[in-house]
Amino acid sequence: MLHTTTRRPIPAVEMVDKITDEWRSKENHLAEIDPWRPAWRVDLSDFPPVAGEGVVFSPTEDQLRRLQEVSTILEEAPAEVILRWAIDTFFPKLTMATAFGPEGCVILSILARLEPRVHVFNLDTGYQFKETLELRDRIAEKYGIEVEFARPELSVEEYERQNGGPVYKTNPDRCCYERKVLVLKRKVVGYRAWISGIRRDQSPHRANAPIVGWDKKFGLVKINPLARWTKNDVWKRILAEEIPYNPLHDQGYPSIGCWPCTRPVLFGEDERAGRWSGTGKTECGLHLADDQPPPPPPTTYGNL
Ligand code: SF4
């Protein structure tokens, strides 16, 4: 059910159109965002926080319909409006996972203006590039946002010892599951919604990502404020606002994950071609719609 407040009685869709038009016409939009709180309200108060690790709530059809309603309204809205809505609706039970990709850095720059206390974490698998780890400090310095490192229980040394060597070489799906997906499941306990930096044009898996949707794998509302953005949009914003970014992007790495599973791309290759190159794997599993059982333990060693 869509409610219109007396504070700003503009029909929801018209309001978002108005914001978008005004937004697009501004040469310098930096200072103009906070007054633009949505005039509408879709009640999502019956979406509970994640009750425990792996305990997943199942929304009713009516709840899913309301999420879709919000997503439709916000489809054309600027990322700032989407995030303003997310904060007003879910904060402080709102979290964000970032790998410090360019999209994540853009979102952090917006959160810094809207609500820097939103909890943000990085899945630190133990295999990240040092440039990625250093970016955390540069973000903290510029925006005052201290991104928390969320780590698996086992260190890289313990994990490799227990498995007879690096699991990324033999079974990257299992490695991602154990060092990313399980860690995220643990980290989102107590939260109602999470923000992600995925874009629809990044891969076929992401092509239908809504602005706001239900993430049944993690039992959370998922907000994708940059879903409509292109790579160009992201980099225009980064350069215009001097947002810190990973220096590896200037060395041929358009998409950066763990160092063993990331290579620079060649001219003309897809921006994600350097991730798990040669394995057929394209996603770590965080953004796939359905949960998957943990892949079986490795039996033979192969090459990535
Ligand atoms: S990206 Fe590679 S190293 Fe990182 S968790 Fe996945 S398989 Fe393991």
Automatic annotation (TrEMBL):
Known pathway: Sulfur metabolism; hydrogen sulfide biosynthesis; sulfite from sulfate
Signal peptide interval: none
Region (Disordered): 283-304
Active site residues of this protein: 284 (nucleophile)
A GO CC term assigned to this protein in UniProt: cytoplasm
Start and end residues of each Phosphoadenosine phosphosulphate reductase domain: 94-264
Domain of life: Bacteria
Keyword Oxidoreductase appears in the UniProt entry: yes
Name by which UniProt lists this protein: Adenosine 5'-phosphosulfate reductase
Species this chain originates from: Thermogutta terrifontis
